Amino acid sequence: MQLIECVPNISEGNDDNIIKTICDEIEKVDKVKLLNVDPGKATNRTVITFIGSPKQVTKAAFILIKKAQELIDMSKHKGEHPRMGAVDVCPLIPIANISMEETIKLAHELSEKVGNELKIPVYCYESAAKSKERKNLANCRSGEYEGLEKKLKDDKWKPDYGPSEFNEQIRKSGATAIAARDFLIAYNVNLNTTSTRRANAIAFDLREAGRLKREGNKLTGKVEKDKEGKPIRIPGFFKNLKGIGWFIKEYGIAQISYNITNIQTTPLHIVFEKTCKRAEERGIRVTGSELVGLIPKKVLIDAGLYFLKKQQRSSALPENEIIRIAIKTLGLDELKPFKTKEQILENYLESNSSDLIDMSLNDFAYETASESPTPGGGSIAAYCGALGAALATMSANLSAHKRGWDDKWETFSNWGNISINHQKNLLNLVDKDAQSFNNIMDAFKLPKTNEEEKINRFKAIQLATKRAIEIPLEVMETSYKSFDVIRKMAEIGNPNAITDVGVAALCARAAVVGAYLNLKINCKSLDDKIYVKKVIKKGKEMVEKANSFESEILEIVNNDL
Fold first, then answer.
1. CA distances for 177 relative to 171, 183, 269, 524, angstroms
2. For a 10 Å CB count at each end of the chain, is N or C smaller?
3. Which of 205, 431, 433, 500 is catalytic?
4. Residue 350: is its pLDDT beyond 80?
């Protein structure tokens, strides 16, 4: 699932009705979750945070900007925070399974739509900036709303999208800055000291800004300056890291409060480890840490994998186990329970999931037994394949952790990771197979009252049918690939799991053969006979090889019993 976050700042922080009306528009958009609404009365500004699929989030962002344009009059706005429009800024932030390049494209598409349809001047900043000067938001917002009329007359500051001539509509709406930027993590590290000065010293070691360079005594000496009279700084260890020490009265401890502005260059777990090292050098111990707000799942996955590798343990584990390792190692539950369902971004959307793979085993079995045609044989075949891959992964993990095999842990971990990827792919195919059947049914429901409708309906049925062939073919290919790991585990894996490997082979073969049956029946309805002949041949060959692999693996298993 692809996820992006959007954090628009609207120039209204006092009128609850306006804020609510704008936020209500977001909640009307399907597959978008409103995470937070933070109004500020003094700033007369509200920070809104929502998350969802890229297409739906950009749709919600456009609707929000449109509604804010209707309800907020910038000619009457006053507030302490810098601003230049009814929607002052609207950054898009990649969260899961989407690159920054893709997010930049979305930001530009949104900017173009806002400029063309709403006639609002748009400046693109951060990673979406079209020039170096516009990368910094402060530059884009220079002159603020009051200077916008003059700014639009300057060719240097012609908007990236939208009109460049000040008019009555722009007098009301102002301009908007749209960005693609990285996720910001607010992260606190707990120390077994009450000394803010010591906490600051550690923070200065690590943060990008570092500390001031002084003559003689590092603490009390005169601050050194460059030729322009500016203070010289000794940079800290990390880029994209801000940090300061403070005392938390509620807990009676000092903390280091970090802001990580780029999780790619500055991973959270590396910041934690470096903090531990610098603290220890000062006779201080890190007792745990704390995440403020929500965090992308990837951050905890990366941390968990890092710590597992340090422990020389297999990383071929379920995501929830990897996350648990990260939570315990980072001490995220020291001060209060870390609630994964509430603090991991992706989990906000998963709670309302209707996917088959999110069902309990009991519910899945009874749903299969119901009068509904889905899940059917195709989904069950994919699930059989997933179970086979899961057993192969288990064997790899047991082998990596076997006493006396410590020199082999990385080899088995690598095999396990291959297998768990097969497992993930096959689990995804459980729902894809069910959806492919539903798509065929939807195509058959299309109108056919005239010749054009008949042609379009036929094309839709053929397209859906071809997709319904491709899914079981993918199940076959993935399950067939899983035999490599299953066979290897039969040959070199932990002998205590040999019968599990045998069952894995049975599941993998069942998946291949079962998916082939579904492929064949769907092929009967496809008009493209050349394609049909090709996939039938390919499928038959995989079935024959799967039968052979199963026999060979079972022979190895039975010889060990």
1. 16, 17, 32, 54
2. C
3. 433
4. no
Active-site entry in 77, 81, 484, 528: 81
Query: Quick one: tokens of 144?
Result: 């603020």
Q: What is the pLDDT of residues 236-264, one digit of tens each?
A: 999 999 999 989 888 899 999 998 988 88
Q: Is 123 helix (H, G, I), strand (E, B) or coil?
A: strand
pTM above 0.85, yes or no: no
Phi, psi of 142 (to 5 degrees): -55, 135
81 is catalytic: yes
Is residue 247 within 8 Å of 194, Cβ to Cβ?
yes
> For 15-39, how does the pLDDT look when each residue is reduced to its tens digit (9 = 90+)?
999 999 999 999 999 989 898 888 8
Residues forming CATH 1.20.120.680 domain(s) in the chain: 356-559
Domain 185-350 has CATH 3.30.70.670: yes
Q: Could you give the CA distance from residue 436 to residue 210 in angstroms, rounded to a whole number?
A: 56
Tell me the pLDDT tens digit for each residue of 459-508: 999 999 999 999 999 999 999 999 999 999 999 999 999 999 999 999 99
CATH topology of domain 356-559: Four Helix Bundle (Hemerythrin (Met), subunit A) (1.20.120)
Q: Where are the alpha helices (H) located in 332-408, listed in sequence order?
A: 340-343, 347-350, 361-369, 377-400
Return residue ranges of the chain for CATH 3.30.70.670: 185-350
Q: Tell me the two tokens of residue 112.
A: 């173009």
What confidence tens digit (pLDDT) does each residue in 142-156 have? 999 999 999 999 999
